[in-house]
Predict the structure.
Amino acid sequence: MKPHLIKNKPKHYVGMERTKQRDELTSNDWGLVFEEMMRRDLIDLPEDYIEETKLFTDPSELEDIYSKQEESNLFCIHRLQDAEENLELELKRRKLI
């Protein structure tokens, strides 16, 4: 862990050199330490550390996505209703035979 990235070192990190305890930490342990320090906002990260992909840039794009999904859902609902109706008709037809 780079000391210049740590804002406020917790007491147990102050003066911590390469010690046996530090050397015995597993990769998972280091991950947990990192996550805890991130949670406490003790690590300064560069702006591009977490690159987020924007799914849309304009609010109208979100409305378009929502409308298309709604149309798709309604289409699926109508197909299911048609299939159920056809099944009921077929079952009634078979009972008459």
Remarks:
- The CA atoms of residues 47 and 53 lie 14 Å apart.
- The helical segments are 20-23, 27-39, 59-96.
- The chain has two domains: 3-39, 55-97.
- The two ends are 79 Å apart (CA to CA).
